[in-house]
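Input C-alpha cells:
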C-alpha cells in the first residue's frame, strides 16, 4: 500500500482525465497489464477501492499515470484530485501481459484497444519497444475526440485507428480495419469493451494467432477474498483480480 502525491490531473476530454502521481521513494516495479486499487478519498458514497490499469510509468520522473473514464461517483471524485493531494493505492495487483515472446524480436505484434481499454496498452507498447520488439496499435473510438493519448502512442509505434463515425481513421469497429485483412500478425493483445474483445478473440482464433485479453470484471476487494470478479474459464472459475486480469483468450469460454 502506498500514498502517492498528485503532480498533475489533466482533463484530456470531458469524460476522461489523466492522473499523474509520484512518490518520495522510487516507485515499485510494475508490469504492463497490472492494475492498482485506488482508495477514493472524501466520498460518502464510494467505500470500495476502484481498480484502474497502469497506463504508463515514467521511471526518470518517477511517475505513475492513470487514465480514468468518468463513469460514476468514484471516478468523478478522482477527476477532482488536485496537485498536492495524496491518494492511497494498493499496487501492483494482478498478472501481466507476456512481454518475453517465444519466436524472436521480428514478430508482428498488434495491440488492439477500445475506449478506456487503450489505457494498459500504452505501457505495454513501451515495454515491448524497449525489449526490442516493434509493436503496432489498433485503436478504436466513437469519434476523433475520443482517441486518447495519440501523441504518446505515435512515439512508440505505428498507430491504426477506427472511429464509429469515420471522423478519424477508418470508419467502423476495430475488427473491420483493413490491416486485419492485409497484414499477418504473430500475436495480439487486447483491452476494451467485452463485445470488442470477443470479436478480437474470434478473429485471433480463426487466424490461429495467440491472443491475450485484459478483463475488466467488476471488482471489490482486489485480492481474491470476495469472489465478485469470477470468470468462468476452461480451467474453472477464476478470480480476475488474482488469476488475471490478463487471460489467454483460448482459456476463456467466450466463443463456446
Ligand atoms: C482490472 C481493471 C482495470 C481497469 N482499468 C481502468 C482504467 O484504466 N481506467 C478506467 O477509467 N477504468 C478502468 N476500469 C474500470 C473502473 O474500475 C470502473 O469504471 C470504476 O470502478 C467505476 O467506479 P465508479 O465509482 O466511478 O462507478 P460506479 O458508481 O461504481 O459505477 C457506475 C456505473 O459503471 C458500471 N461499472 C462499474 N465498474 C465497472 C467496470 N469494471 N466495467 C464496466 N462498468 C463498470 C456500474 O455497473 C455502473 O453502471 C478497470 C477495471 C478493472 C477491473
Ligand atoms: S475482487 Fe474480490 S475476489 Fe476479485
Amino acid at each position: 500500500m502506498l500514498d502517492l502525491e498528485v503532480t498533475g490531473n489533466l482533463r484530456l476530454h470531458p469524460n476522461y482525465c489523466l492522473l499523474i502521481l509520484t512518490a518520495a521513494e522510487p516507485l515499485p516495479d510494475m508490469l504492463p497489464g497490472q492494475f492498482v486499487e485506488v482508495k477514493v478519498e472524501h466520498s460518502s458514497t464510494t467505500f470500495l477501492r476502484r481498480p484502474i490499469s497502469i497506463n504508463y510509468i515514467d521511471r526518470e520522473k518517477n511517475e505513475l499515470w492513470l487514465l480514468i473514464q468518468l463513469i460514476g461517483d468514484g471516478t468523478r471524485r478522482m477527476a477532482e484530485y488536485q496537485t498536492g493531494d495524496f491518494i492511497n493505492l494498493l499496487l501492483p495487483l494482478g498478472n501481466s501481459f507476456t512481454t518475453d515472446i517465444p519466436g524472436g524480436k521480428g514478430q508482428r505484434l498488434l495491440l488492439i484497444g477500445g475506449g478506456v481499454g487503450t489505457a494498459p496498452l500504452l505501457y505495454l507498447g513501451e515495454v515491448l519497444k524497449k525489449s526490442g520488439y516493434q509493436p503496432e496499435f489498433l485503436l478504436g473510438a466513437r469519434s476523433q475526440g475520443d482517441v486518447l493519448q495519440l501523441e504518446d502512442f505515435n512515439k512508440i509505434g505505428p498507430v491504426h485507428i477506427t472511429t464509429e463515425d469515420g471522423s478519424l481513421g477508418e470508419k467502423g469497429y476495430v475488427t473491420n480495419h483493413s490491416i486485419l485483412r492485409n497484414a499477418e500478425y504473430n500475436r495480439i493483445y487486447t483491452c476494451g469493451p467485452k463485445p470488442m474483445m470477443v470479436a478480437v478473440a474470434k478473429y485471433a482464433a480463426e487466424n490461429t494467432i495467440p491472443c491475450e485479453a485484459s478483463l475488466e470484471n467488476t471488482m471489490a476487494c482486489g485480492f481474491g477474498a470476495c469472489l465478485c470478479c469470477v470468470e468462468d474459464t476452461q480451467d474453472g472459475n477464476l478470480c480476475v483480480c488474482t488469476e488475471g486480469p490478463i487471460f489467454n483468450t483460448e482459456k476463456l469460454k467466450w466463443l463456446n
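The CA atoms of residues 95 and 243 lie 7 Å apart. The longest strand covers residues 2-13.
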